[in-house]
Amino acid sequence: MASFIKAWGLVIISLCYTFFIAKLVPKGIKRLILIFPVVLIFLIVPFLISSIHILGITAFFIAWLANFKLVLFALGRGPLSSNPKPLSLPIFLAVSCLPIKIQPRPKPPNSHSHGGSREGPLIYTIMAVFLVLLIKVYEYSTKLPERVVLTLYAIHIYIALELILAATAAVVRAMSDLELEPQFNKPYLATSLQDFWGRRWNLMVTGILRPTVYEPSLQLFSVLGPNYSQVPAAFGTFVVSGIMHELIFFYMGQLRPDWKMMWFFLINGFCTTVEIAIKKAIDGRWRFPKAISRVLTLGFVMATTLWLFMPEFNRCNIVERALDEYAAISAVAAEIKRRVTASLL
C-alpha cells in the first residue's frame, strides 16, 4: 500500500501540473515540451510498485494510456481535449489516469455506443463467480495439460479486464454523473480480425491508438490512395501495440524480452492487413457465413494467443505471484473477520 500511495500520489501531482500548464500554454510543441517530463515520470512509476496486480494495472493505465493521452492533449487532440468546454480538474484526472472516455453527446438511458455492448449486473456477477472458480482450479494446474492451463489464463485475462474496466467506469460514472463508453463489445461475436481488434476488443486502447498511430499513418501513406493506405496504417498500429505490451510485461517480469509478444502482434497485424486488402479487392462480392467467420476468427486469435501471448505469463511467473497475492488477501480478510467476531462476543 505504501508503494501504491507513493506511485499514484506522484501520478496525481504530475497530472495537476499538466492541467495548470495547459491553462497557461496553448496547444503545440511548447506545451508538449513542458509535458514531456510527465511522460518520463509515468514511464518510471510502475517500477515503484511491488504488487503484481497494481503494477500491471498501473503500467497499462499510466505508462501506456495516460502517456498517449497526454501527448494528444499537448497537441490539442484526444479525450482530454475533445469536449466542447475544458474539463474540470477532477474529470481531467479521471480521464487521464483511467481507461475511460466520455461520450461525445448524451445518450438515452438504455442506449450505449458500439451496439449497446455494456453488460448488466447479472452478467458481471456471473463473470466474478467464474473468476473465483478459475482461481480455485489453478490449485490443480500441475495436473492439467499446459495448453489447458494457458487457455484458462486467457479466459482469466478477458474476464479480469472486463471486470476491472467496467468497475472503473462505473465508479467514475457514479461519482461524476457522466456517461462513459463501454470497454468491450462482445469480442466473442467478432466475424473478422478487423472486427475483433478494431471494433470489439479493448475499445479504449483502440480509441487511443487510432489518433496517435493509425490516423497519422493514414496521412503518411496517403500516396497509396484512400483504400490501400489503410494497410500500412493498420500494421503500424499493431507494431506500436506490440511494443507497449512488451513494455508492460517488462515491468511485471523485469526480464529481458524474448519478443514472443511482439511476434503475436506482428502476426495478427499482418493477417489483419491481408484481410483488409482482400476485402478491398473483392469489394463485398463474396463473404463467409457469419457462423464460419466467427469460428475462424476466434480460432485464429486463440491459437496465436496460446502460442505466443500466454507463455509470457509463465516466463514472468505472473500467475504464481498473483495467486500468492490472492492468498495474502484471503488471509487478511480472514483475520479481519476473526477480530470482528471476537469483538462482538
UniProtKB/TrEMBL annotation:
Please give the name of this protein: Wax synthase domain
UniProt xrefs under InterPro entries? Wax_synthase (IPR044851), Wax_synthase_dom (IPR032805), Wax_synthase_Magnoliopsida (IPR017088)
Give the transmembrane ranges.
Answer: 6-25, 55-75, 122-138, 150-172, 231-252, 291-310
As for family, the record states: Belongs to the wax synthase family.
Any one GO CC term of the record: membrane
UniProt GO BP: lipid metabolic process
The record's listing under Pfam families reads: MBOAT_2
Q: Which domain of life is it from?
A: Eukaryota
Q: Which UniProt keywords apply?
A: Acyltransferase, Lipid metabolism, Membrane, Transferase, Transmembrane, Transmembrane helix
